[in-house]
Amino acid sequence: MLVVQCWDDGVTADARLIEILRRHGAKATFNLNPGLHGPTRGHGWTYRGTEVLRFARDELAAVYDGFTIANHSLTHPHLDQIPPDTARREIADARDALQQQFAQPVDGFAYPFGRYNDTVMHLVRAAGHTYARTTVIAHQPFPPADPMALHPSCHFLAPDFWARFEQARLAHHTFYFWGHSFELTTEPMWSAFDAQIERITHTPDATWSDITTALNPPPASLRR
Are strands 131-133 and 108-110 parallel, antiparallel or unpaired? Predict the structure, then answer.
């Protein structure tokens, strides 16, 4: 079973999360908004009494070194509620900026707020992305019928996380979870997350994967 994870928004809590991922050898994709990172760290919002900060632009390359980068739009708007030309710029300009900054292909997209429609899906595909993640929870075979509507298996804090994990494992399906690092607001939550990643890593028939590999598995004749 392949296990895939992705994290949204490019906030400073990602640095602590990445330390955990690196310690356990876990792969991940980070969905970023290049238009929201300035020359210094900046206030984003407050979540459950905790200030959420965004990284400074010049910090991003070092923080996310070794991980896959995907597009989350330029400034995180509701893409289905703005003019198509504006949405096109939000999508295409962000992809261009991320590819230049990280010197890697940016194949993936994550819909801001999980909002999308047929027009937005078309714009994401036209900008050169090969998949786009929704926030619709579903047990979806890989590759899905439409990679512009790639549904995750669950959120990382889902109460039935392990039940869904086992369901995917027994069915030999890819297990795909997502979240935001700023949702980890207490030390017990961080400890639980560390244990969660460790447990996945040590599951004998589970292998960490990036999304692109999961969407493009090798031919059956090449699998072992």
Answer: parallel
Coil, helix or strand at residue 11: strand
Per-residue model confidence (pLDDT) at position 218: 64
Q: How far is residue 28's CA from residue 42's CA, in Å, rounded to a whole number?
A: 24
**Rounded to an integer, what is the distance from CA 178 to the centroid of its chain?**
6
Rounded Cα distance between 213 and 200, Å, is 18
Res 196 pLDDT > 90: yes
* Tokens read off for 46: 């407050």
Give 8's DSSP letter: E
Peptide bond into 144 cis (omega under 30): no
Gyration radius (Cα) of the chain, Å: 17
Confidence band (pLDDT; 50, 70, 90) for 220?
Answer: very low
Has this prediction a pTM greater than 0.90?
yes
In this predicted structure, the answer to whether residue 92 has a pLDDT above a threshold of 70 is: yes
Q: What is the pLDDT of residue 221?
A: 38
Instruction: Tell me how far apart the alpha carbons of residues 57 and 52 are, in angstroms, rounded to a whole number.
Output: 16
Q: Beta strand 50-54 with 131-133: parallel, antiparallel or unpaired?
A: unpaired
Contact (Cβ atoms closer than 8 angstroms) between residue 127 and residue 91: yes
Alpha carbons 66 and 82: distance in angstroms, whole number: 34
Q: How far apart are the first and last CA of the chain?
A: 12
Would you give the DSSP letter of residue 40?
A: S
The pLDDT value given to residue 219: 57
